[in-house]
Amino acid sequence: LRVSLPCSHAKEILHCLKEKYFKELQNLEVDGQKVEMPQSLSWYPEELAWHTNLSRKILRKSPQLEKFHQFLVSETECGNISRQEAVSMIPPLLLNVNPHHKILDMCAAPGSKTAQLIEMLHADMNVPFPKGFVIANDVDNKRCYLLVHQAKRLNSPCIMVVNHDASSIPNLQIDVDGRKEILFYDRILCDVPCSGDGTMRKNIDVWKKWTTQNSLQLHGLQLRIATRGVEQLAEGGRMVYSTCSLNPIENEAVIASLLEKSQGALELADVSSELPGLKRMPGITKWKVMLKDGQWFEEWKDVPSNRQTQIRPTMFPVKDEEKLKAMNLERCLRILPHHQNTGGFFVAVLIKKSPMPWNKRQPKVHQKLPQRTGDTEVTAANSDNSSECITEEPTLAENEESKTMEELQNSDTEQSKKEGVCGPPPSKKMKLFGFKEDPFVFLPEDDPLFLPIQKFYALDPSFPKMNLLTRTQEGKKRQLYMVSKELRNVLLNNSEKMKVINTGIKVWSRNSDGEQFGCAFRLAQEGIYTLYPFIHARIISVCIEDVKILLTQENPFLSKFSSETQKKVKDMAMGSIVLKYDPDPEKPDDLQCPIVLCGWQGKTSLRAFVPKNERLHYLRMMGVEVFKAKRKEEELESKTEEEVQHRLAQTEEGMDVEDKERDLVTKMEAEIGEESSHSPVESSAMEVENKIEDLDQSSKNANSHVSQESKDTDTGNVKD
After folding, report:
1. Is the pLDDT of residue 548 over 50?
2. Global pTM?
């Protein structure tokens, strides 16, 4: 398990793990066997990754471990902890990610490495919008929803999930000072589909199904994906190629072939000094190729003609000793299972020194259009719809140059086809599989929807309102999402060629009751840490005791809070509020990290809108025993429909606004479970029912597939 670094509570979670949960495992026996104490991974920075020998079955079924298991599940749902194969944590660490880097994860599902990359982007919690972003891709439409589920836990405006074949992922364009340029990535993670023979210790199927044929069939795909990756890598950028296989056909053979055809444009980085403490073996330089029937071949010339479709020249080691020495294949990393009780793994770190030979442009193109060298490559790769790509939302500068660009496109089309530059699949085919996604619609600058929001929350003039988007073109906008400026640029300039599954974090939700108080949108907890720096009104500072009341009681009366909080609330209008806790350095025993919660202020009460697992997380950090609290919440959620109806009948007999709020939220809890903690308070039972129908409809795509796929999110890196 790995503690998420950008989490402002990382130190508290680590302290909680070591001082409470790990200590409880000391001298514990389960089924007659002594439980081994979890150990930190010596090579992972800051003691943030730990390993335990407890099997999943024991962890789930043993009553003595129920508290620990509940802690792991709850914190994982919050995004504060990730359960992950130890060796799978290595590739993101070797990418050396900085917050300004543009990152592509080519084969991202199920998403544990993607989560690491997002964490690295948000290394500085005080920067709500890092300049970098992660585009996470996977070829499997259903697995993309599992990827969304993983990414959503981290509440980042800098992640986009797309659905493409990694070997032909399209060139994207971005707008730079009014001109369109090709997007090159600073960092690329290329964790390709593999035979998975490195997972033999945990994956029993590998023993039954493994044959040498697996690697022979995958080699070509792995090489195509890696080639596509280095094509899209910026000069000076770093790409990590990894597999959970130990077969050289899938590893060194792919790297050697890539280095050979790059003609010096790529080099293997020496990472021997990185991750001290990690036991590793060097890459190998000699190997043979074997067929399913047991035939071995040392060179391509030995392969009979009838076998040359199964075995390809790129599968063999380089024979030229000088070339082989220059490749430095020993710089690859081989992680063997028995060295440190892990899975088997292969990692190679590539650095791009110059453009790939088949992507080099003529010097005259650079002279004519120094800022648009990428356009010709993109349009050539997409000759069928090249005019659409360039003329979509054209600026004045683009109109003036359109004729010149057309001439360049026509002259380069044939050449680029010969060079093998891959383009995206035709847009018509994209509609034949997968689920139909709602559109991503950015709010116009003069949208009347935003003005009351801006006024109600006194948003800072620097607030990037252009980055707000919705998922509907017609009718009422129910949710407002937010992306970073850089991802907005990518979305606007590539809508025709890219199949986007999900992006943005929810920052506001429509609330019918709010309209009478001046704003129809309440704050959403998912996006509060992103929004908070821009909000200057409706902020209430609360003490630690107030936070405990907010998190343990459903809809507490104002009289239960401290006198300071009551004074602050007294003159404030009803509606959505921000509840902020700042630690007191003079009270070291109290929680020493800030908390920001979304709340709702009524006539006589104050409540927090916080998801259940996040609620439990904050209480744990404050030292409150939540094991019973969870049981209590489950009992609340299991209230019968008759009780709900009875309470609804009471509201119509003249209960005040606060009681209506409480009862209607309880009804939503009864019908949609944990969604209640995210859902806005509605003004009537009819509206609640409509909302539930809307939730069912809008989550049909994502949730149903997430639930199927997420039964086993940590099954390793085998991608079929």
Report:
1. yes
2. 0.78
Residue 92: half-sphere exposure toward Cβ, Cα within 13 Å: 25
Instruction: Tell me the two tokens of residue 391.
Output: 């003329």
Residues sharing a CB contact under 8 Å with residue 707, sequence separation 6 or more, in sequence order = none
3-state secondary structure 603-629: CCEEEECCCHHHHHHHHHHCCCCCHHH
In this structure, are strands 159-162 and 173-176 parallel, antiparallel, or unpaired?
unpaired
Strands 39-40, 50-51: pairing kind: antiparallel
User: Is the alpha carbon torsion for 88, 91, 97, 103 positive or negative?
Assistant: negative
Which residue in 52, 342, 54, 1 sits closest to 198, CA to CA?
342
CATH T-level assignment (fold) for domain 86-107+166-359: Rossmann fold (3.40.50)
How many Cβ atoms from other residues are within 10 Å of residue 563's Cβ?
Answer: 7
Q: What share of the chain is helix, strand, coil (3-state, %, to 5)?
A: 45, 15, 40
Q: Helix 141-152 to helix 700-709 angle, to the nearest 10 degrees?
A: 90
- What's the rounded Cα separation, in Å, for the pair 490 and 180? 11
Q: How many residues does the chain have?
A: 720
The tokens of 86 are what?
Answer: 């130890």
Element (H, E) at 394: none
Q: pLDDT grade, residue 15 (50/70/90)?
A: confident
Of 614, 629, 612, 713, the closest CA to residue 669 belongs to 612
**Binding site listing:** 107-113, 138, 165, 191
Contacts of 168 (CB under 8 A, 6+ apart): 228, 422, 423, 424, 425
Sketch the domain layout of the chain as residue ranges. 2-82, 86-107+166-359, 538-627
DSSP E strand stretches across 35-101: 39-40, 50-51, 81-82
Active site residues: 244
- pLDDT reading at 646 higher than 70: no
Residues of the binding site for S-adenosyl-L-methionine: 107-113, 138, 165, 191
Predicted pLDDT at 425: 36
pLDDT in tens, 211-244: 999 999 999 999 999 999 999 999 999 999 999 9
